[in-house]
Amino acid sequence: MRNTILLLTLVALIASPLTLTFGAGDVVIYTGTTQWIDKAPADEQAQICVDMLNDAGINNTWYKSDGDMDALANWMEDVTDDNGLDICVLYGDIPPTLYPQGNAMPDGSIGEMFIESTDGDAILNHADYMFWGLGNRNAEGGLQNMMDIPGIVMWDDNTPMIVTDEGKDISPSLPAIQSDRPFHIDQLANDWEVEVSLAQNEAGTRADPIIVRDGDRGRLIPTIQTANGDEPKGAVAAEIIIWLKSTVTSVEPDGKLTTTWGDLKAIK
Amino acid sequence: MKHKQFCFIIILSIPLLLLFACSEGMESQTVVPSPIKTITSPTDGAVMVFVPSGDFLMGTSDADIELYKELFPLRDISRFDNERPQRTVYVDAFYIDKLEVTNQQFKQFLSDTGYKPKHYLDYPPHNTEDQPAVVLDWSDAAAYAKWAGKRLPTEAEWEKAARGTDGRIWPWGNEWDATKLSGNDGTGLIDGYVLTAPVGQFPQGASPYGALDMAGNLWEWVSDWYTHDYYEYAPNKNPLGPESGDGHVLKGGGWAENLDFTRCANRFGGNPGSLIIGFRCAMDTTQ
User: Fold this and answer.
1) Mutate to test the interface with A, among B246, B274, B277 (most CBs of A within 10 A)
2) Which residues span the domain enclosing B269?
3) pLDDT over threshold 60, residue A234
4) Nearest by CB to B271, which of A35, A155, A158?
5) For residue B79, which residues of chain A lie inside 8 Å, CB to CB?
6) CATH number, position B177
7) Within a domain: residue A124?
8) Which of A87, A185, B157, B271 has its CA 20 to 30 A from that of B25?
9) CA distance B59 to B223
10) pLDDT, tens digit, for every residue of A102-155?
11) Tell me, what's the ipTM?
């Protein structure tokens, strides 16, 4: 009996760094509507992301249908300001339940409240222009209103991205890409700043993927915004999420974080 | 002494011959059929350029692919599958608008007919009179063409009007030149225009038949339905596109596009996303 207790204690101690690494917060992936990537390849990439998150022990939910738009909005409302780092993954379209179409609610949308909470919540977007919207619902206004930065755009297709050292460390799956809708670092304003640039152009003015943060509030993570490309979007998204959740929400001392991230990469 | 003179003449003539040979090669990239024949469309007042009947190279060849590997080293080559194989295509003679349809022309159509467009961006910064009309719904473009007594060009007609017969990459030739189109990065730092330029601002980027803005400014609707694999079974004479498809084909690239999307052979369809679209019209020569 004593041996059994000792064994269980040992197992618990060994497992604790992994379980403690990921604090509160969920990940939700939405492929109900997609843009610049067809639904089938988007689902393939989402499955890869889900599998990797599951392997890493990160809670996640995958909404596959456009009928899930309301459920997605309900989830986002529920987790805003819940003290957990929640992440929403989109494939080129932001549903109107998160950001009313035609820029009808430039301030105060469910999506904007999500990234303005001090939870550090994040929206990660693949494929087409972030927040553009299917059928040009929002056009440039979507990103500008969500970030409260008039004039910010994501033009400049075909821009070669060089993977940074941080990018190599955070996302081993990230290849060099030519981004069609890169983030314009040189247009950041107000409290927005670069948290990590995983890949960028030579001049350092365009980046994709990148994590940008609004002061101590939320984050945007444009990730492989390309037209009909077959890059490993799902794997890169998962690696960014694993890094973000292990780094940002860990309750462990800094020294243990590095070890834990190394362990996670080894698991993959 | 005579021998020395002979050698001198020979040595002098070699670079001249080389220069001549090079200029011949360059000329094949910049040849402009002359004179450019035009008519004016009576309903919308658009100038149309004449494109003669005959064969042209449509799509992307194996040699092009090798070049694309250098130009776009980070692109997956499968990206160009929908432009292949390259084939020799015959099209009958036709006229095509020299310029993209402007807001002034499109509003005249709306005014004359009372037509209610499904998706026309009639607001700043897109809607000054001489900017190209941003018409995001294909049926709106087709309705305009019908009112004007014209039609949308087929994809084959559009591509021939843009690149001529020699399979060049861009309307002006095979060398990328960011000053020859309203395109680039959407900042205006290169071409002088943050968004679309008023039509016809880049005569240096003219196609072999004199059409302007075939690369950049706005993506353009054509009449063909889009399927990814159409070139694999398309007819070689006056192809009209598949009978149905995933939206309609878009050609030419827009004001925010660079060297890849603005290639004459590039084609987009189905899920246009953040592409800003306009159109120009075509007309049979028998009309």
Assistant:
1) B274
2) 33-284
3) yes
4) A35
5) 228-229
6) 3.90.1580.10
7) yes
8) B157
9) 17
10) 999 999 999 999 999 999 999 999 999 999 999 888 989 999 999 999 989 998
11) 0.77
